[in-house]
Write the structure tokens for this entry.
Amino acid sequence: MNKEIDKQLKRLNKLENKILNKKENQLFKTKVGPVIDKIEGIIPEKLKSVLEYAFFKGFQLVFDKGHKYIEKTYNKDKLQLEYDLNNYAVDKKMSKEYMKKLDKQANQSNLLNSAISVVEGGVLGVLGIGLPDIPLFISVIMKNIYEIVLSYGYDYESKEEKFFILLLICGALSEDDKQKKLNEEIDQIGIDMDQQIYAEIDLDEQMKVTSIILSEAMLTAKFIQGIPIVGAIGGVVNYNVIKKIGKYASLKYKKRYLLGKARKRNDTVL
């Protein structure tokens, strides 16, 4: 394996282990945690079901028709051209400098879209809007991921890639052993997809699973966001969720990209 690829993969593995073994913030656990537990205790079960369904319909809408509208918020052709140029440079000389150029666009996208989510969540929260903004929130999540996908040379329109993206959202928002198990599954599916090995998938079922995980991560925030003025906290929660998803998606797509380069070089040698 090329030395630079090896160095990059080792760095990614360190970042990945940091995410998978993240220590719980003690201040949050002792001060904020009990408050959230109390709020969760008064949230009606019906609202939980409504929220899960709203996220599911939001994913359906974005996957069926939404990506064409989301693409109007960034220059897809420019992102693909930048990838082609940077990837050509990487193929000519695998170096840290050229890898940084590949990473730059993905990192900028995550930062910008996280900031957009603060405005979206904060403004709608002040107005007392909770559930109706879910398609908009999902659109920001997908905009972030789509730009990352393009930054590493992938295409998000296939059924298989949509499935992979949903798994990434689940992996980013899960915790402990469940997250570690999902992380391994995501790696293997990514490798299989890049080698044209496709298992039978149920996209609707994965949308439902992802909607449950996302609604659990957002439940308290969305409940509070439905209360005028107090709901401004939604912007902070939106920011944290999108930043977490974006960071994880960048890591996983870069890993897929590097593993693909490693396989290609080994095939060339053989």
